[in-house]
Structure formats: C-alpha cells, structure tokens
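Anyone else keep sequences and structure tokens together like this?

Example one:
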Amino acid sequence: MPQKIMKPITIFGIENLTETFQEENLMEYRVKGLEKGTFYKINKDYMHLLIATDPELQQFIQNQLINHLANISSRYHYSQYALYQKLLLELYRIACDLDLSFENKTIVFPTYISISFLAGYLRAGRNRISEQLEELAQEEILLSRKPITLVTRKLFQKLQENFSSF
C-alpha cells in the first residue's frame, strides 16, 4: 500500500502508522524513504482519505490493532500468573525451543538450564525458584535438579490444570 502513495522505488514503508493514532493532534505521518534515509511528510487529510478508500489498508490497520490488543491481553494475563505457573509454562516453552523430546517418559534439560538461569529468566530470586522446584518435586513432576529432569506425563497434566486453553 505505500506504493500507492509514491513511486515504489522511493518508499520503504510507513513508520508507526498504526501506533500513532494515540496522539490526538498528529498532523502528519512519517514515511521512510530509501533515498538517502530522508523522510517524506504526508498530509494527515490525504492519509485519512487514502485509508477511507483503500480496503487493503483498512484491513492492514485492523489486523495491526487486533495483534496489538492480543499482545497487551497476553502480557496482562501472564503478569497475573503465580511464579509456580510461570515456571511450568517457561519450562515447557524452553523444552519446545530447545527441541527436547517429549516422546520419552522424561524431559532432560541441558545442564545450563539451572536454578540461576531460571531465576534470571523469570526475574525471581534463586530461593524462590528453589522453592517452586521443591514443590514440583513433591508433586513428582521434578525428578532431578541437576540436570533438571521432568516427568512428561505429569508436566502435561499440570499444564492442563493450570492453563485450561493448553
């Protein structure tokens, strides 16, 4: 859609178009130009007319807004989780990111995934992480701390209990 505004060879993209609507008195939108890194100014009324007449641009803005609201909602819900829930979720995500096997009865993490690593990752103290790991051990989800070893079936069961949409 920026190509409809100016020549395709001179436009890189619209900068923060969907994020600038929060500023009430915005008079112009900045458009990045490829030529010598300069910016082109586009009149606000022209941009509104373009948005009103271009269904593709309307859909783009709508999709960006939906994504932005979904991210806000996701961050809010995540911030409300207890440390225990965050630890469960992040251990699962780390296992997925590292492509660890879920086929076996256990998930064995590399040695660098330690209490210190998890404390930094979750922005919590080592003592709090140790307490949560102790709770996982009591529930027979955690088999070993060095290396961290989890029982796959029980981890999934606990994830389903804590996160109904899992």
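And example two:
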Amino acid sequence: MRCLPVGRIVGWAAFLLVPATAAHADALQERLLAGMRATRSDGFAFRQTTTIERSGADRKTLVEQYDPRRAEPDRWSLASVDGHAPTPKDLSGWRKIKRDRVPSYGENTKWFAAPATRVDANGVTTYRFARLPAGTLKIGPHDASADAQAEVVVNTRGRAPFVERVRFVTNKPFRIMLVASVQNLVADARYTSLANGAVVPAEVASRTAGSLMGKSGTLATRTTFDQVQPVR
C-alpha cells in the first residue's frame, strides 16, 4: 500500500472508550489549552527521523532537519536517505512534497477545546473525545475527523501539566479518490517537556490498513524528534 501523506502521519486500529465523568471543559483542560496556544511552531530547530514500512516495499528511512532561522524555502533540508547522503533523484522527489505544517505541540489547539470526558484513576488523568472538529484529521483530500476519536493522557508530575500522549483512531472505513480504501487507522503521538518547560514532539507512530487499486496492505510510519533547540 502506498504512503498516504498527512504531514507525517499515522496508522490506526479501533479502541474502546470506557465510561467517564464530565463531558465539559474544566480548569485543567483550559490550562492545557493555554500551554498549547503559547507554543510557536517556528520556535524550535530540530531533526526528525522517519521510518516508513509498507506491504510489498523495502523499509525506508529519511532524516530531515528543520531550522526556522533560515529563509523560508530553506527551513527544511534532507540530511540522509537510508543512511546515505541523498542522491539528486532523492532530492528531486523530496522537494515535491508539500510542507504546510511544522510538527508542534501547539497543533493540538485545533481540536483540544472540543467536548471531552475525563477520567482520573491511579494518579493519571485521561481525556476522551468521541468526535473531532472538522479539519482535525485529514488523510489526503479526505476529512476523517467526524469518524475519528481521540484519547489523551496528561502528565501532571512536573511544574506545569502537559499532554504527554495522544491517540487518534478512525472508526469507519473510507475511500480516497476512488483508488485507495482505508479500513482503519491509528496514530499515536508522544510529547516531552524540555528543561525550560517548553513542550515539544518526541515521537509520532501510525499504522494504516487498507488497499490501493484493489490490493490490500498496511502502512506503518514512525517519526522521532531529537536535537531540539529553542530558537525564539
């Protein structure tokens, strides 16, 4: 199955939502939102390593750098492909990829204000979202938001709470441009807090099961982030 682009996204499988308490935003949710809104997507330079595995194809690993201090066209750069310097062909294909977003903790503001249920158990706070706002989860031209759910685990151990883990899951098959069909998709994102208290992405992993031109397969991606440096 060919890679389905969603700015470095994600694979999936259904998960069960257990009963929870209040279905309205509370003080903690508002505090988490404030932290997300205060995060600038262009506030950090970083390196990201993405591994792509799909049925019938060799595993592929891309290492990319992002530095917002550079001129706009040069902020993203391709460092290596499968452990080697990129060839002219690699660079040509890579430059055609549309990059309309930068991975950021602040991206979660797009949907985290939606109605949610909250569970506090064993010292862990979890929010669950039964429905996501339009535009939250787009797979190519398809908006899967209305048929997706989210589960969020909050880290409350530090000086300021932050969302440590997010899981998105689709609960309804869909088609993309008539040639591809997605049966299920699960994406997990993990965030970490830097020494200065800033929250940044640590890892995004996904698994998609479906078919392309009638041929079934799976696509799994994993992106890790390192060499993160605040620049603003």
